[in-house]
Write a structure and sequence with these properties.
The complex is a heterotrimer of chains A (about 130), B (about 240) and C (about 110). Chain A has about 130 residues and is mainly alpha-helical. Helices cover about 75% and strands about 0% of the residues of chain A. The termini of chain A are far apart. Chain C is mainly α and about 110 residues long. The chains are: A mainly alpha (about 130), B alpha+beta (about 240), C mainly alpha (about 110). Chains in contact: A-B, A-C, B-C. Chains A and B meet through α2 and α4 of A and α4, α7 and α8 of B.
Chain lengths: ~130, ~240, ~110
């Protein structure tokens, strides 16, 4: 009997071959989750500038209004919205609610994520522009 | 008669598996199991695969067809084009025994551990007189223990200790209809980091299940039971 | 653990919305200057919910990290240490956040 190598087991959840909406939703949930954790650390680290006084912080704020930063903000919002909306979907499904509609719910989450990201992106560029 | 191209995973433990292509002539009304049996009969008698009933009630012929978990006996060839290739691989997350064959005993052991019986005395006709010559009417559970759900589950990929969709669904079935069984033991089994809480709701078990067991919903109902149980204990001032 | 992840997740729907709206969407230019941050955090209600947000988001994030690490095939022994380690990290993050917010708030006094 051949043992499955440890690295292969560990990466099994990434394998999308043969998977459908539910598997894709799960993978995206993980990836956005990892991204958001990294962002949380970065965010808290950047906030230390506040302890260094007005000059340090206000210089950062000026830089954060560059188009590149604002585009990254859009990406962040995309990640947050997907994670949040799919989080609601997964909470319901995890309690056995709406399982027969899970695929449709996934596409609903995707549509709502994209729509709300578009609105947020518009808002970001008008507020900061 | 159309010729079908099948790409089967071949090999034995201890050597790297390889994909080999076979051509087989069969009418479009035939099923994938017919094609694999024909390859075994006419081209290579060393081909390992499992089969028994040919009508989706034994759960023996589960494989991955073009990456997706299916029972070969209810996968019609007409679904595919003779120009394309039908790739057949063994189920994932089971010990591999060679070719299309896996060792399903880890799943069977777990099903036995929870005491799941796929054949039960039928309670609907219990109070009715039995027809002559019939000693007892039995009823089959939906789950045919084919293991497709375990192969499709991404958590199963990562966690050997996970009870898995089939077992959790079995626990839920038995809690729904305990017939004097030990429900406390079943609840304890399910209320574990590697039990009902481990599921990440990827919903793939229900998507591949050939027998309408719907393990994903069952896991959800199991969680609701566990939550109610916890609240009851908490309000009751228990541990 | 699933229950807590779901519960903190649902709390975050509210707390993160508040955080985003009040820090970015109702602010002129979308980002607060130093003086505005100090003024903002001086409000006791704002201070309380931002700290609550910090605690809940940290818990949710680290429970998520554990769920992913568990899928790398971590056994019960390693998991025990992992839980202790992540708790320490969480307390560290919350401590840092509370200290920082308190310090900023004190600039306004």
């Amino acid at each position: 009997m051949r043992e499955v190598p440890r690295w292969k087991r560990a990466s099994g959840w990434i394998d999308l071959r043969g998977r459908r909406e539910g598997g894709l939703a799960f993978l995206l949930m993980r990836l956005t989750g990892i991204g958001l954790v990294i962002y949380l650390f970065l965010h808290l680290y950047v906030l230390r500038l506040l302890a260094q006084g007005p000059e340090a912080w206000d210089a950062f704020i000026a830089m954060a209004k560059s188009p590149l930063f604002l585009a990254l903000d859009g990406l962040l919002i995309l990640g947050i919205l997907y994670h949040a909306l799919n989080g609601v979907r997964v909470t319901l499904l995890g309690l056995g609610i709406g399982v027969p509609h899970q695929a449709r719910l996934f596409w609903g989450v995707m549509a709502l994520t994209l729509l709300m990201t578009a609105i947020a992106a518009y808002a970001i560029f008008t507020i900061a522009g | 008669m159309p010729t079908w191209q099948l790409r089967l995973l071949r090999g034995r433990p201890g050597s790297s598996p390889r994909l080999e292509t076979y051509r087989v002539e069969l009418p479009a009304e035939a099923y994938l199991i017919d094609a694999v049996e024909k390859i075994w009969a006419e081209q290579d008698r060393s081909l390992l695969f499992r089969h028994a009933c040919h009508h989706a009630s034994c759960g023996a012929c589960g494989v991955r067809v073009n990456g997706r978990e299916r029972l070969m006996c209810i996968t019609p060839l007409r679904e595919f084009s003779p120009d394309g290739v039908i790739q057949v691989e063994p189920l994932r997350h089971f010990p591999w025994l060679g070719d299309l064959l896996v060792d399903v005993s880890p799943m069977m052991r777990r099903m036995a551990e929870v005491g799941f019986a796929i054949i039960r005395r039928d309670e609907l006709t219990a109070d009715r007189p039995l027809p002559e010559g019939i000693e007892q009417i039995t009823r089959f559970e939906d789950c045919i223990e084919c293991g497709l759900c375990l192969s499709a589950c991404p958590v199963m990929a990562a966690d050997e200790a996970y009870l898995g969709p089939a077992t959790l669904a079995a626990i839920e079935r038995m809690l729904a209809e305990p017939r004097g069984g030990d429900t406390a033991r079943l609840l304890t089994l399910a209320d574990d980091p590697h039990g009902a809480w481990r599921c990440h709701s990827a919903m793939e078990c229900t998507a591949v299940c050939p027998s309408n067991v719907d393990p994903a919903s069952a896991i959800g109902r199991l969680r609701r039971r566990l939550i109610v149980e916890k609240l009851r204990r908490w309000i009751g001032g228990g541990r | 653990m699933w229950i807590w992840q779901a519960f903190t997740g649902l709390l975050l729907l509210i707390l993160l919305t508040l955080h985003m709206v009040f820090n970015h969407f109702v602010v002129e230019g979308g980002l607060r200057t130093y003086r505005d941050v100090v003024a903002y955090l001086s409000h006791p209600v704002v201070f309380t919910w931002e700290i609550l947000f910090l605690v809940v988001v940290t818990a949710h994030a680290l429970m998520g990290v554990r769920a992913i690490l568990l899928d790398l095939g971590i056994g019960p022994g390693t998991d025990r240490w992992l839980k202790r380690g992540l708790t320490l990290v969480g307390l560290g993050i919350i401590g840092y956040g509370v200290w920082l917010s308190w310090w900023i708030r004190s600039r306004g006094a």
